[in-house]
Amino acid sequence: MPLLTPILDDRSYQQLRDELIRRIPVYAPEWTDHNASDPGVTLIELFAFLAENVLFRFNQIPDATKLEFLRLLQISLRPASSASALVQMTPVTVPVVGSVVAPTRTTVKAGNVLFETTDEVNALPITVLGMCKAASALPTDPEHKDFTERAIAAIRDNLPHPALGTARSVPPSPVFYAPATVPVDPAAPGATPVDFKSAVDHMVWVAVLKTKDTIVPKLPGQTLCLGVKLDEQVLPTDPVEPCPGAGASATGPSMNWQISTGRFDAAKRPVYIKVEVRGDSTRGLTRSGVVKLALPAALADMGKFELDNPDLAGTGDLPPEIDDAAVAADILFWLRVSRPAGTAPFGRLLWLGANAAQAIQMQTASPEFVGMGTGAASQSYSLVHKPVVEGSLQLDVEEDGGWQRWRPVDTFDASSEDDRHFHADLEAGQVTFGSGVHGRAPQIGERIRVVEYRYGGGPQGNVAAAAINKFDSLGNLKVSNPLPARGGAAGEQLSEALERIPGELRRRDRAVTAGDFRELSLQTPGAGVGRAECLPRFHPSIPDQETPGVVSVVVWPREDRAHPNAPMPDRTLISDVCCWLDARRLVTTSLYVLPPTYHKVAVAVGVHVKTGYGFEAVRRWAELVIRQYLAPLPPFGPEGDGWPLGRRVHGPELEAAALQVEGVEYLEGLKVAELAADGTTWVAATTVSLRPYEVVELSEITVVANLPPLDPGTPLSPPDTGAAPIPVPVLKEVCD
């Protein structure tokens, strides 16, 4: 039996008035004028109005009880999430020191939305260009082939004399490549990331270019803030890594950054020297962020390589050649980065830029005196600003020995009477202290201050590319965000918190059962998870057998405009869910957060339209109904929760869905097909079976009116597998 919230008295003003009027003949028969003009009726109407207001407040008792449950369970509303973006700064005028410094927490604006930078930026009057030596096939065009043959001959002629240990007769082992450039404007239409997995030398090359304001003698010793934006798209071929857990490395794989000196050694090899890394929020280029590199102290250790033989350009350890002569003339030096042998290659890069910083939608509040201790249990004090950004609140209490820093906790359950703990309600902007039994309570006369905290957040922070274009204080810099900001989300509503009560009572913010993982995934702050499914004992590397101790969670975004029929999460969404579940899972559980695995199907339907109905309208409605029936996201699917994992696609089931369309008299037929193993042809079947971890993707649909259905699907183009990797630059086609 469902537990319905009772309405204790649902009578309205009109009902109360009519009931009182009907009682007049019983209690006052001599009162015969019941019209609205009678003074007695006016008093009755006033009483009915007041009674309706009293009943309205009376009916709030169930809601008040729910709110009290929230307080007793210490369930706070989840605060708004802050958007973040990479911003790039450009000096307007360059001082004699050669750079402009933007300190940490510099405020930048997108209209009225404020962002703060998380680190200092040393803005240099330079630009950078990321490049990759992408594997290419051996050219067959005579002109292109002649170009590569000259390059190979130049390498052979450049080999050292046999007295130096290398014989001229030893030919090089060529690996041909074509230079690929990381997009300068990643938000431009058609901008595609560069996949560095195809790099023949397993390196990322960065050309540092001068501008009209560059003061070259001032570059030595400066810090270059290099912004890196990885491609967020998740491909089916990408390897699946487990969630890192609380003990994950904060640095990522080791990196080897080097800078070109412009010199050659005795063996005619280009000389590079190591560059110090002063900061790396990318964790070894495994995520988007900023790498801070210390340029050499001597100008002689920075330069580009000048070649006597132009056919040597781009060969061997030399940087890739840039076709644009004007850009090539502006090169100051090259940076390159590699990983140790045996480690994973670099991924897909969407943008590389100089003078970059991470900006988050927040503001830093001034220090506040919040109150004086009373010695009472569960003292509570309010802050000036809200919502508070998680992890930013620092609070001190003045005790006998001076100011003491207190530590934030989620609950006081594990706190002893002497523990200096406090609980922060981030959404309400309130701090609460312990009872004296669980957590120390500030004593009488002890002053309480908040040294620092940051506040902000909300969906208004998800601004478009180039929207962040103003400084709050610095006038000597220009700022822009090359890509849209993302991650901002509104705070939790009261109705949503009330719906969480049963789940919080059952799981207490811990992920143990499959339902816990699914529900907690949907609640990931700011991630925009549209659907989540838990697969216990499922390891993505061995999907056909159970693996004890492993839990996999499949997630879908709320929307994916690029792939509406098969929504795919991006890397940020998967990372957010990983971090959210990592803090709540058992330590003995290995956790994977996966994108969905789609099984492509095609459907062809022939419908007979009733007389009086338009053929085109009925055809479109039938197509829409089938699309929604096979959709993976709520509120569509057979039961409104999206197409279930592993559920077969049965032809008669789709026929029943199509027959619900008004105007369809009967079906001429319905055919279902799936892709063959070669991935290019469709194979008709009455029922398409799916594996337990697969969900259907409607790849093709054809609906015809008053005709038998056509064969479902059309042949697909064979995938472009490319040729085997090879070395030496390949001449590129350039259209004038």
Overall description:
The protein is of the alpha+beta class and 736 residues long. Helix content is 17%, strand content 30%. The protein contains 11 helices and 37 strands. The strands form 9 sheets. The chain has a 7-stranded mixed sheet, with no helix packed on it. Helix 1 crosses helix 2. The longest helix is centred in the first third of the chain and has 20 residues, at 39-58. The radius of gyration is 34 Å and the shape is globular. It starts with 12 loop residues before the first helix and ends in a 31-residue tail after the last strand. Residues 1-5, 161-170 and 714-727 have low confidence and may be disordered.
Features:
alpha+beta, disordered N terminus, 11 helices, 736 residues
Please outline the helices and strands:
Layout: H1 13-27, H2 39-58, H3 61-72, E1 84-91, E2 100-102, E3 107-110, E4 113-117, E5 121-123, E6 126-135, H4 142-157, E7 177-181, E8 194-195, E9 203-210, E10 223-230, E11 256-264, E12 270-274, E13 276-280, E14 289-294, H5 325-329, E15 331-338, E16 348-354, E17 356-360, E18 363-364, E19 368-372, E20 380-382, E21 394-399, E22 402-408, E23 421-425, E24 430-433, E25 447-452, E26 454-455, E27 470-471, E28 477-480, H6 494-499, H7 501-507, H8 514-522, E29 529-538, E30 546-557, H9 571-582, E31 590-594, E32 597-609, H10 615-629, E33 649-650, H11 651-658, E34 664-675, E35 682-685, E36 687-688, E37 694-705
Parallel strand pairs: 22-23, 30-31, 32-37
Antiparallel strand pairs: 1-17, 1-28, 2-5, 3-4, 3-27, 4-17, 6-7, 6-9, 8-16, 9-15, 10-14, 10-16, 11-12, 11-15, 13-14, 18-26, 19-25, 20-24, 21-22, 21-25, 23-24, 29-30, 32-34, 33-36, 34-35
Helix pairs in contact: 1-2
